[in-house]
UniProtKB/TrEMBL annotation:
Name under which the protein is recorded: Uncharacterized protein
GST N-terminal domain location: 1-82
CDD domains: GST_C_Delta_Epsilon, GST_N_Delta_Epsilon
Pfam families: GST_C, GST_N
Superkingdom field: Eukaryota
Species the sequence originates in: Tetranychus urticae
Entry-linked PANTHER family: GLUTATHIONE S TRANSFERASE D10, ISOFORM A-RELATED
Gene3D superfamilies hit by this protein: 1.20.1050.10, Glutaredoxin
Length: 219
């Protein structure tokens, strides 16, 4: 039975799930939900996910949302030996720490910057400063490790890569943070062929364009 992923092409957390699935060689049956048109509020989707967000995974009737819980579930279930999410408790705890940091701190500060654009309000420069402060902390940490959680590429690198590259696309410059730049190059090399362009760069630019057009339409 195929595993289904409800997603939207421009959704950053949905892209994280697709990248992880590709890394572990898992084919997902993708079902597009047009969140821009409000399709996530249709009763048939609400029945699957009352929180009406993408990504949502359905595995043999089991529905799961929140991208970071989905990616750890996918590796545990379909690639349990994979180094993207090792079983060693301390390695796993360190990866989880970065995933929670991304969800509750890093991506949140990025969202605080760009979210007003969706309703035609100006982006928040102070929020960009908070994001940059968080990025500097990440850069400092990457001074001593090759990947965010140690010596090996993990699901946390994939989640945080999507955050940093979206920031770049929407105009928050992190090019002076050299450890982040070096790490991004490494992640780009480690991802399966074509992933970087099709699931990281192009959709980040697509979302940036969309935000720009929403801001100008509403201003
Ligand atoms: N923390 C969630 C965020 C999910 C989220 O906000 N998804 C957006 C698209 S990027 C969405 O579905 N928005 C429509 C809605 O919530 O109604 C995750 O990582 O999966």
């Amino acid at each position: 039975m195929s595993v289904q992923l409800y997603h939207h092409n421009l959704s950053p957390p949905a892209r994280v799930v697709k990248i992880v699935a590709k890394q572990i060689g898992l084919n997902l049956e993708e079902k597009e939900i047009d969140v821009l048109a409000g399709a996530q509020m249709k009763p048939e989707f609400i029945t699957i996910n009352p929180f009406h967000c993408v990504p949502t995974l359905v595995d043999d009737g089991f529905a799961l949302w929140e991208s970071r819980s989905i990616i750890t579930y996918l590796v545990d279930k379909f690639a349990p030996e994979h180094s993207l999410y090792p079983t060693d408790l301390q390695k796993r705890a360190t990866i989880n720490r970065w995933l929670y940091w991304d969800l509750g701190t890093f991506f949140l500060s990025l969202k605080a910057y760009y979210r007003p654009a969706i309703t035609g309000k100006p982006v928040q420069p102070e929020a960009a400063e908070v994001f940059k402060k968080n990025a500097s902390a990440l850069d400092e940490s990457l001074k001593s490790t090759k990947y965010v959680a140690g010596d090996e590429l993990s699901v946390a690198d994939i989640s945080i890569t999507v955050t940093v590259t979206l920031a770049t696309a929407i105009g928050i410059d992190t090019s002076e943070l050299k450890n982040i730049q070096k790490w991004l190059k490494q992640v780009e090399t480690d991802l399966k062929p074509s992933t970087w362009q099709t699931l990281v760069i192009d959709p980040a630019n697509g979302l940036a364009d969309l935000l720009k057009s929403m801001a100008s339409k509403n201003s």
